[in-house]
Amino acid sequence: MRLLDRLVRRKGRGFHSALATSFAIEFGAFEDVMLPQLMGSGATNILIVADDRMTALALMDGSTLPRQLGRDYALYGPPVGAGVFHPKIVLQLGRDGGRAFVSSANITGAGLGGNLEIATEIECSAEPGPEQDFIRAAWHYVERITSETEGAARDALDWARERTPWIAGPVPEDVQVLGDGSLLAFLAIPDELGVLERFAGLVGGAPVERLIIVSPYWDKALDAIADIRAALNPGRITVLLDAQRHDFPREAEHAADLEIIDISEWEGSRFTHAKLLIAMTAGHDHVLSGSANCTPPALGRKGFAGANAEACVYRRLPPGISIETLELLEFLDLPATPASELPVVEHREPISFAPLAGRGAGSFEVDHGLLIWTPPDVPRWTGGSIELIDSSGDPVIRVEAERLIARSHQRIVPLDDPLLAKVHFARVIEGEMSSTVAPVVHRALMRNRRREPASGRVARSAAAFLEGSGAEFFLLEAFEYLYRADTAEADAAPEIGPAHGPRSRKETLAEPGRKLSYEEFMAERAVRPSRGEKGENALAGTHCDGVRVLLNRLSGGGEAADDRTGHVDDDNWMNLGDESGDSESLNPRISEPDPGSRIEVDQKPPAADRKAFERAVDNYVEGLTNDERSLSPADVVKLRLLLMVILWNAYCAAFPGGLQCSVDDKGWPRLVLRVIAAFFCGRNPPIRRLILASDLQEMPIDFLECWATVIWALDAIARMLPVTSGTRDFLSRLPKLKAQIVAQLGLTQADLAGDVMTKWAAGLSREMGRRLGIEGK
Questions:
Q1: What pLDDT score does 476 carry?
Q2: If you average pLDDT over every residue of the chain, what do you get?
Q3: Cα–Cα distance between 11 and 3 in angstroms, integer?
Q4: Which of 262, 433, 471, 697 has the smallest CB count inside 10 Å?
Q5: Do 266 and 331 meet the contact criterion of CB atoms below 8 Å apart?
Q6: Of 554, 550, 577, whose CA–CA distance to 711 is shortest?
Q7: What is the torsional sign of CA 30, 34, 40, 42?
Q8: What is the average per-residue pLDDT within 433-441?
Q9: In the 3-class helix/strand/coil scheme, how is 18-42 assigned residue by residue?
């Protein structure tokens, strides 16, 4: 099969994530050939795990530098010991199921299309089964070899895990029994036992009549052959060798009694890079394929698990099936060639990592105006500078070491966003010494591009926000489909429509890694300098993030403007006042004031369904107060959306049939107040259940947008409600509620006076304030 042709196929809604491991990598081949196939399967969250030294060589070999690395996919090089990082795995993950390929193919032009390779493909659904256990075993292995990663690579792994609920759980059993009775196992190292020892254990002592070996590379003394002979005691050993392009040690002692058959014509002129062991017994074919060459560092031996990282697949099949499937039968009857008569082939020089010794640059990321450098353990760079490089290999800027600020084990430096946008690579220069070239990962870019494949009503709901021009009531129901898609419950009935009641069961996003409550986040944030600047988008990579597109459009995009018509209270928009009152009793039955003058228009849109709004708010309040589930960033944008929908549907010149400006149950001021109080007030306010990722440094931008909307809405009520005997008590409670909310949020004066909050208030006043007719009030 052609691996690339298999990668692009979708399963169900498609795969949201793709993880691939490799020894060697050619970035041109990956970006031109393999990456489009992975994206075509639906994946927007893509991580490559490759040998760090091979990656460094690929970035220094003079070939065209990658343009999408650090923007469309992340790269991680795990630590290696005496051996090399050599597994070749592709995992494609989605909510509906997954797919795994374990093969002999590197992510190179030859591996993806030139060589003769062997791959095992296993596909599973979201339902438990042996295929799923195999893919879960491969996932656990990837998690284990990436356990030390951080930054963008950690983001990719966590994001994939959160959206693949079936991947969770304990490590599966070593061997899976398939529906046809055949056996399947994922064998990988590092582990307690080597691949060969585990393979021999699965053969189980059954007499091996014939052992077939295919390998492109061998150890010089053929010690691996001796180890295999000792472990399996085969009646005969057949080596299928590409005699025209072999690396076989002709003079080795253990070569003399091997049956060597030339398979140069197996697939024409293609180099045989496949790795294969077939132990043929009377009852079964025991097959081992994957990344391991026929060497002790790859296969291990008794008492030695091996030096490399490798990944292989074991299959137990009916006798003869493997030979037939791989079309090897025609070669097995060919005459053998003595080792001494094999053609003398000029062997390639082994890859030398000596030029890389002591030159590691560490890793680099860009995140919200900061260049973040994680230095390597060795060498310990103590001075010099960091040279930032564009996609063509040309220098952009050099940052001197004295500008770097220590932050834990990292070094950071703020730089202008337009300059950082040009940066693709970096290297460290100290005196006459320079490091290898390292990619610069744009972490926020990668977060923002992650999306799960959407179809059906989820896709239609997303389009409603992307294409909408107003905060219509039906968007509340559309939001619920997006919310439930992000929490793996897209097929459940929406919660917040005119015909639906509160949640019937808890829904909580998976929370891998360290999470913080909002209170804990603010406590940690308090010890860091904060200037009210925007942080990253906590909704990045979710369907709910698209909701912000419409809300930001209706809020003036948060941009300041010279025309400040309708701006609530101008520069004193956050004046808290000093009135006191009980914010938990903000729901008294107050008579409606006189509506005052109304603006009449000839063409009136349909009047708002006041009972539907009241039911929607009832459902929202009941869902928040009766459920003890943790709240996610999606709940923050939900709060903002509900407020904006109520405000948009308020009575105004543009909508004379809108919700009245009154304090009865159907008036928009009371609806707004009930929504806000439900989130922030009570003996155990729901905001205390809000959970954030621990690696957030600043207040997320989507949170600031919501908090600004909440505070602006309270000020809008104060501006719009006329002061009468029926509203005076209601209005007197607003300043204390505002003060209580600011206290709950932990906002500082720097936050309130910062660009984000002030610009968002100005944008709301310019757009929503003008619509409501706040100017002059």
A1: 92
A2: 85
A3: 16
A4: 433
A5: yes
A6: 577
A7: negative
A8: 94
A9: EEEEECCECHHHHHHHHHHHHHHCC
pLDDT of residue 514: 67
Spatial distance between the Cα atoms of 363 and 440, rounded to a whole number of angstroms: 7
Question: Distances in Å between the alpha carbon of 463 and those of 481, 543, 776?
Answer: 12, 11, 37
Could you tell me the pTM of the whole model?
A: 0.79
pLDDT of residue 575 exceeding 60: no
70 conformational bin, left if phi > 0, alpha if psi -120 to 50, beta if neither:
left
Q: How far is CA 257 from CA 3, 229, 341, 677, in A?
A: 36, 12, 13, 84
What is the Cα–Cα distance from 609 to 658, expressed in whole angstroms? 9
pLDDT at 571 over 70: no
Contact indicator for 458, 487 with CB cutoff of 8 Å: no
| Phi then psi dihedrals of residue 404, to 5 deg | -75, 140
Answer with the residue of higher pLDDT: 313 or 432. 313
Output b/e per residue, 570-585; b: 16+ Cβ within 10 A. Answer: eeebbebeeeeeebee
The pLDDT of residue 535 is above 80: no
Nearest to 774 by CA among 720, 710, 714, 713: 720
Main-chain dihedrals φ then ψ at residue 364, nearest 5 degrees: -130, 140
Distance CA 343, CA 416 (A): 61
Short-list 735, 719, 725, 687, CA closest to 582: 735
CA torsion through residues 414, 418, 424, 428, sign: negative
As a whole-number percent, the residues of the chain with pLDDT over 70 amount to 88
| In the predicted structure, residue 680 carries a pLDDT above the cut 50 | yes
Helix axes 195-203, 223-232, angle to 10 degrees: 30
Tokens of 220: 């010089």
The residues near 630 (Cβ < 8 Å, ≥ 6 apart) are 508, 509, 511, 689, 690, 691
Name the more confident of 310 and 698. Answer: 310
The confidence score (pLDDT) of residue 777 equals 52
Whether the link from the prior residue into 190 is cis, omega within 30° of 0, is: yes
Strand 395-400 with 385-389, pairing: antiparallel
The DSSP element (H or E) to which 54 belongs, if any, is: helix 52-58
Q: State the DSSP H helix or E strand holding residue 618, giving kind and residue range, or none if neither.
A: helix 610-626
Structure-block tokens of residue 208: 């091996």
> How is residue 468 written in tokens?
């909408």
The burial class, CB within 10 Å (0-12 / 13-18 / 19+), for 303 is exposed
Helix (H) or strand (E) holding 244: none
Res. 489: pLDDT tops 50: no
d(CA 3, CA 280) in angstroms, rounded, equals: 27
CA-CA-CA-CA torsion for 748, 753, 754, 760, nearest 10 degrees? 110
CB of 719 closer than 8 Å to CB of 660:
no
pLDDT at 340: 86
pLDDT in tens, 239-295: 999 888 888 998 888 888 899 999 887 766 678 899 999 999 999 999 999 999 999
Residues 405 and 425: their CA atoms lie apart, in Å, by 20
Q: Can you tell me the mean pLDDT for 688-701?
A: 84
Q: Is 180 helix (H, G, I), strand (E, B) or coil?
A: coil
701 by DSSP, 3-state: which? helix
